Every structure is written in structure tokens, then in C-alpha cells.
Amino acid sequence: MVPIDNSDEAMTIPIALTIAGSDSSGGAGIQADLKTFAAFGVYGASVITALTAQNTTGVSAVHQVPADFVTAQIDAVFADLDVKAVKIGMVGQLAAIEAIANGLKRWSPTNFVLDPVMVATSGDRLLALEAVEALRQKLIPRAALVTPNLPEAAALLDEPVACSEAAIKHQGQRLISMGCRAVLIKGGHASGPESIDYLFIGDDVIALASPRLATQNTHGTGCSLSSAIAAGLARGEDLVTAVRAAKAWINAAIAAADRLKVGRGFGPIHHFHGFY
Fold first, then answer.
1. What is the pLDDT of residues 158-179, one digit of tens each?
2. Annotated domain spans of the chain
3. How would CATH label the architecture of 15-259?
4. What's the whole-model pTM score?
5. Residue among 116, 96, 108, 86 at smallest CA distance from 49
């Protein structure tokens, strides 16, 4: 829990920007990112790339935001706000990726976390197939950190889903070779009593293990984890510290998820478990 400053003097607050799709049910995407930033005491700004009609049972429709309007949002935010970190989630289409890549080139944010959202928790595809190569070439090389889960890492590399530690390490190093500074391969889709995430920084690999939690309320987990890391970077933390703090927070949010009754399917995690 982040302490609240009750003094009357205006405070300087770290600012993070999320560039992602909107989730009408509030559990993932832009909505989850902003909740996560708030939980970490970080001011959140947003650039919306797509509107989704979805709930805890699935996605029924997706409306892509025109690329020129994605550009307008990016420029409006950076022209005024002192953005300390950027998280990019669902980009949806090729034109949006190009608009985002050009915006990053114009404004050169220092801390850029890429969560390569391809498929929703419900199984619905959220990234057009023709956009995957653009993700590889235009966004991954610019990222301070890329945070794929096991199926996303496999899709980015055109390989089978890794089923062993050796295979995960092989895929992590391949992703690093694409030009990003670090990779976090998330182990939530694996099996076993522990969920192990692997953080690759250069030639170093850090295994981050936590007990696997039995709940179906995991909607927005990936969005929220990458946003929590971006929040830590916005607060001035180094990457390893930000990743460790984010993983501890997400584990607690998943553990508390069943305290909330939201929807009939894959419910959200509890972003504000530290507050209520």
C-alpha cells in the first residue's frame, strides 16, 4: 500500500502512460492499467488503441481506433505530461503499431514496457496475424522490457510453446537477440505447484518463483503485471526491483481475487487488495 500525503501542498507525482485497448468489463486493458498505476501511487495517462465489447466470458466485438487518432493521443500526452514510463499492451493492428513506433521515436521515453497481447484470457484473438511481424521489428527492439507469457513467446518466435526450463531459456535469449534490453517470460500457463517467471537481462537469467494459486479469476493478470512494472520504473526503481515488487503485488492481487464477485466467467484480480 502506498502512503497518502494529506498535506495541502501540491505534490509531484510520477506519471506513467498506458497505450492499450479498452476493456468494457473493466478487468483488463486500459482500465486494469490505470487501476494498477493508482495502486502504486502513480498518475496514469492513457492512449486507447481499440475499443472492445467484452465481459468475463469473452470478447464480442472489437473496434479499432484509427491510427491518426492514436498519434493525436500520443502527442497530446507527451506534449504536456512528464511521462516517466510507458506500458504498451493491445495494439490490435498494423497501422496502430506504426503510429506507436513513430510516436516513441518522436518522444523517446526512457522506460518502455511491452506486453505483447495477442489472445485474451477467454481465448479470443486480439492481434491481427499480419501485425505480428511489425511487433517484432518496430516495437520489441525499442523496449526496455518485453513481458510475454509462454504462448506469446512461442508465437513471437514461431516455435512450439516451451515445456521445459531449457526451452524457456532458449526462447528468452532469442527474444533478447531481437534488440530489447530485457525479457520477462511469465510461467502462469505452465503446470506444477509453482509459477516461475524468468527474467532475462543480457546473458543473465533470474528465476522468480511463487506458489501457483487455484482461481479462475485471472482476467487482466498480464496487463496488470506489466503496468505494475512500469509503475515501479516511473517511481525510479531499477528494473529488477520493479519486477520483483510487481510480481509480489500481482500474486497478492490474484490471491485476493475470489473476494470479489464480478461476472460469471474469468473474473478480475483484486487491484486494490491493499486498500480493501
1. 999 998 999 999 999 999 999 9
2. 15-259
3. 3-Layer(aba) Sandwich (3.40)
4. 0.93
5. 96
